[in-house]
Design brief:
Elements lengths: L1 E5 L5 E4 L23 E2 L1 H7 L1 E6 L4 E7 L8 E4 L6 E3 L7 H9 L5 E3 L9 H8 L2 E5 L13 E3 L2 E5 L2 E5 L8 E5 L4 E5 L3 E5 L2 E6 L12 H11 L6 E4 L3 E2 L4 H12 L8 E2 L8
Parallel strand pairs: 7-8, 8-9, 9-10, 14-17
Antiparallel strand pairs: 1-2, 1-3, 4-5, 5-6, 6-7, 11-12, 12-13, 13-14, 15-16, 16-19, 17-18
Helix pairs in contact: 4-5
Length: 275
């Protein structure tokens, strides 16, 4: 058995031969490659893909791949005295970055918002043996690694850092909330829309590529989960919104509930722009 990385989406499969297709690409939320599938083995990824990182404040590292693989998601590492938390994963962690993570204390907990960001989770499990936390409704997507801690609606990883099940984009979609930072790691619950380098709009979706909207019940669940949280910054699977707050997010969700289903971006509240 070997592992194969889909270059169209960044999803790994554990299989006995090169796969004929990719379940993530063929799911309704994604799109198969127009020119056919191409897969990388770990040995090929090590030769062809570099992992770069940047520090966001004192306790957070953000990772990306160069060249970009698939949909090019971020990976995060929250540094915590009770054990570091990896949330989301880039498709590939090269040897230099694994050594850097080791020097920072490794990984005690791993989780991701949904299957689009499982990426190189198997590498972190192989290297650091963390608790692998996945909401129960997304367990069928985890064939490339072993889940050690399935959860239902909520799981506190360390004091003040919680996983919260939202559903919506995927049945098991979950977010991570960091109480001290007042930060929401929102996964694909939100899409940030930029203009001149600043976030000017927000949207939400079931499937972004195919423009599939969420249902009112799914948006209402988002609201129920987010309303109690004191949010002052947002990290999605792709971007950072350092000035976004709970009111911005609820404003967008409330408007979506009073109009026809849509994935189109809505401008931020007037009082939020330029803060």
């Amino acid at each position: 058995m070997n592992r194969y990385l889909c270059t169209n989406c960044g999803f790994w499969q554990h299989y006995f031969t090169t796969p004929r297709g990719c379940p993530v690409c063929e799911d309704v939320r994604h799109s198969p490659p127009e020119t056919g599938y191409h897969f990388l083995t770990p040995e090929q990824a090590q030769r062809e893909v570099r992992t770069v990182w940047q520090q966001v404040g004192l306790d957070l590292l953000l990772f990306r791949n160069e060249p970009a693989i698939g949909i090019n998601p971020c990976g995060y590492l929250l540094l915590h005295p009770e054990g570091n938390i990896a949330f989301e994963s880039v498709p590939w962690y090269d040897e230099l970055v694994l050594a850097q993570i080791t020097a920072l204390g490794g990984v005690r907990w791993w989780a991701a918002s949904h299957p689009h960001t499982y990426g190189g989770a198997w590498q972190l499990q192989q290297q650091f043996n963390p608790e692998m936390c996945v909401q129960r409704d997304d367990l069928s997507w985890t064939s490339s690694f072993s889940v050690t801690w399935p959860f239902d609606d909520e799981l506190e990883l360390v004091p003040g850092v919680r996983l919260l099940h939202t559903g919506g984009h995927f049945a098991g979609h979950s977010v991570l909330y960091h109480e001290e930072r007042r930060a929401l790691f929102a996964g694909d619950l939100l899409k940030l829309h930029f203009q001149d380098g600043e976030v000017r709009g927000l949207s939400c979706h079931k499937g972004f590529n195919r423009r599939i909207p969420l249902t009112p019940a799914e948006i209402n669940r988002y609201r129920r989960v987010l309303t109690p949280l004191d949010i002052r910054e947002v990290f999605t699977s792709f971007d950072h919104g350092p000035q976004l707050d709970r009111a911005d997010v609820l404003y967008m969700l409330n408007i979506r509930l009073t109009s026809r289903p849509s994935t189109e971006p809505l401008p931020l509240r007037a009082r939020s722009v330029g803060r």
